[in-house]
Amino acid sequence: MSEQDQSIYKQMIDTLGESENMTPKQVKILEAAIEIISEKGYYNTSTSEIAKRAGVAEGTIFRHYRTKKDLLASIITPVITKFSAPFFAEKFVDQVFRKPHKNFEDFLYAFIKNRFEFAKANVPLVKILLQELAFHPEIQASYKKVFAEKIYPAINNVLDYYKEKGEIKDQPNLSIIRLLAPTVLGFLITRFLLQPDLEWDDDREIRRTVDFIMKGIGKVGE
Q: Kindly report the CA angle at 23 between 128 and 133, in degrees rounded to 5?
């Protein structure tokens, strides 16, 4: 894989390894932990499996982390909270919200396409986020902070703009976001977690998702 094609989570692993002065073995443990936890979930992953995939002795893990929980807290959680949330939020806003769009439907397509490409490039990381978010308050707190500071203001401005143009219904922005979020998230969960092996026509499904949302909040035909 070329440097340009490296997924974000691989880049974050390298960055974390450098910032925390990790040894090559620790970096391998980190990579193996992300891969296996994304495949099986945190509670179904054993340290022996992580050690085997990392090519190290299980005792090596326990020299650095007393328990599997420490491994998650000391490695996986920092990857998510310190790097993933701020990194994708900045890029997300820059790539979607700061670019011109012909109309709200065009914006919505760009919004979903961007999150789709992020998920596709970072399936292991996305799986961990979705699997562990409900069980780890520190991850929840990080994402709430990023959403409040980075994502919500950008979405709020876009919704206000298109409401003023008369392209979407004059509903409270929080209500619109509440309807948007589960629809987009449901598509991504089905595509990458529940039924990843189906023969998907990804662009068609994205456009169907856009059409479904527009029928709910768009003012077309009113």
A: 15
How far apart CA 88 and CA 121 sit, in angstroms, is 12
Task: Calculate Rg over the CA atoms of the chain.
Answer: 20
Alpha carbon distances (Å) from 189 to 18, 43, 90, 217: 32, 20, 23, 22
Mean pLDDT across the chain: 83
pLDDT tens for each residue of 58-98: 998 888 878 877 777 766 666 666 666 776 778 888 888 88
Q: What does the alpha-carbon distance between residue 150 and residue 90 come to, in Å, rounded to a whole number?
A: 7
Instruction: Classify domain 8-217 at the CATH class level.
Output: mainly alpha
**What does the alpha-carbon distance between residue 143 and residue 99 come to, in Å, rounded to a whole number?**
24
Structural domain boundaries in the chain:
8-217
C-alpha distances in angstroms, 212 versus 127, 196, 208?
25, 21, 6
Task: Give pTM, 2 decimals.
Answer: 0.77
Quote the percentage of the chain above a pLDDT of 70: 86
